[in-house]
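Friendly challenge for the regulars: who can give me the structure tokens for this chain first? No prize, just bragging rights.
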Amino acid sequence: MISVLLATYNWPQALKLCLESLSTQADFHFEIIIADDGSTTDTKDLIEAIQKNFPVKITHLWQEDQGFRKTRILNQAIQAASGEYLVFLDGDCVVQPDFIAQHRALSQANHLVTGSRVLLNDQLSKQLLSWPHWDSKKFTDNLLSYRLSGGINKYWPLKVKLGNGAWRNYKKFVWRRIKGCNMACWKANALAIGGFDETMTGWGHEDADFVFRLQNRGLIRKSGSWATEVLHLYHRINDQSNAAENARRVREKILAKVK
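First reply, four minutes later:
Bragging rights claimed.
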């Protein structure tokens, strides 16, 4: 089974869209574990309301808001996961109906997958958030106009899906295209490296550190582009005051490996 580890913080309107998109999957052999980094009761109330009629199990993990501690709550979610395969997703992302099926198709022993995202602008994001419910067909029917108006920054990866193959494999570690909002690995491998580095607090590069340590253990990183794209809702940039320090620490680990 697949466990979707869904990170969220104080944006229930976006989380609602995300969960609704997960409720329309072609493949329902998965569970959802919401890794909540200290949201208010608005998020809890939303989850409880959605849980009642949701097609798969939803577990809500919450920790007190003491600043950005995504690594800590994600590690709790990894431990709680019933599935042997983990798909990481953020609550400000909306998925396509084949999201789970595509991740399942790309899953492979001794591999991890880093997917990609399609960025939505502020205007289109507000439009989608105003919909009473997520409607994948309505969105797809207007895809070309969204692209022409600048609402989305990519078109073809949402229309054309490419299959599996060795061409997806990265030969070495690269920073490019590591998105914590869309990646996957086996639970056993995540546990073997001790999960995310909880000493990395504040926004930035905790996902790159996680991927580097998996690759450093011998896993092969596979691209999930042209298969697993998520729609990333626009929001203001997070506080990046810790990003430079987090990046420095990842670079130190990479240099130590090279030596």
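The chain has eleven helices and ten strands. The chain has a mean pLDDT of 93. Your move, everyone else.
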